[in-house]
Design a protein that fits this description.
Layout (H helix, E strand, L loop, with lengths): L1 E5 L3 H13 L3 E5 L2 H10 L4 E5 L7 H10 L6 E5 L4 H9 L4 E4 L4 H13 L3 E3 L2 E4 L4 E4 L2 E3 L3 H11 L6 E2 H5 L7 H15 L4 E3 L3 E3 L4
Parallel strand pairs: 1-2, 1-3, 3-4, 4-5
Antiparallel strand pairs: 6-7, 7-8, 8-9, 10-12, 11-12
């Protein structure tokens, strides 16, 4: 799993980087909001660990801009604040958890494992993680785009059931049956899976 850590405290960031690396995670460390933004442009992550309090900007501002850009990577906030309004704002922006300083790195590890492993689904060599909003094929991270990801989510979470065409059309940015057929074809090609068209009803992904 690849994690972006935004923490301006160098001692804490180095400690967390070392600890999580020892546990098998790949960690990119940013010390500023600008540095973190640049890393998100060039990399795909399974989790963001964002400090709320920064010398310039905040983790809240960063998450807001990421969500605006349709980046739904699950996020845990690191905070020294006891301000419940800030914490509530973090959850409103889509954070899945927060941890208050000071904390034991072991506690963070427990939370990470819980969030990243929750409800993971497998289809052959494909691993779908709804919490991390990621797809992996043969262990490698695959980006199929937001629209195709939404369609695949509907299919894999309703395996062995026909998903109505109208439901899948709602996953598109611009609803049309042609666009849906194109998206389904791209998913099949990219993931090398069989998605059956049930004429007049919808599509089905059958369990292997």
């Amino acid at each position: 799993m690849k994690i972006l850590l935004l923490e301006d405290n160098q001692i804490l960031s180095e400690t967390l980087e070392y600890f999580l690396t020892q546990e098998g995670y790949t960690i990119d460390v940013a010390f500023s909001m600008e540095e973190a933004e640049n890393l998100t442009f060039d990399n795909n992550y399974d989790m963001y660990l964002l400090d709320i309090n920064l010398p310039k900007g905040s983790g809240l501002e960063l998450l807001k801009s990421l969500r605006y850009a349709d980046d739904n990577t699950p996020t845990i906030f690191i905070t020294a604040l006891t301000d419940m309004d800030s914490i509530a704002q973090g959850f409103k922006l889509g954070a899945i958890d927060y941890i208050k300083k000071p904390f034991d790195p072991e506690e963070l590890l427990i939370r990470l494992k819980s969030k990243l492993q929750k409800s993971t689904l497998y289809h052959g060599d494909i691993e779908y993680n709804p919490t991390a909003q990621t797809l992996r094929k043969e262990g490698k991270l695959i980006d199929i785009g937001n629209v195709q990801f939404r369609i695949f989510t509907m299919l894999i979470t309703h395996r062995n059931c026909v998903v109505n065409k109208s439901t899948l059309l709602e996953c598109l940015d611009q609803s049309s049956e042609t666009a849906l057929r194109v998206a389904i074809t791209k998913i099949k090609q990219r993931l090398d899976i069989d998605i059956k068209n049930i004429r007049g009803k919808g599509y089905i992904l059958e369990e292997l």
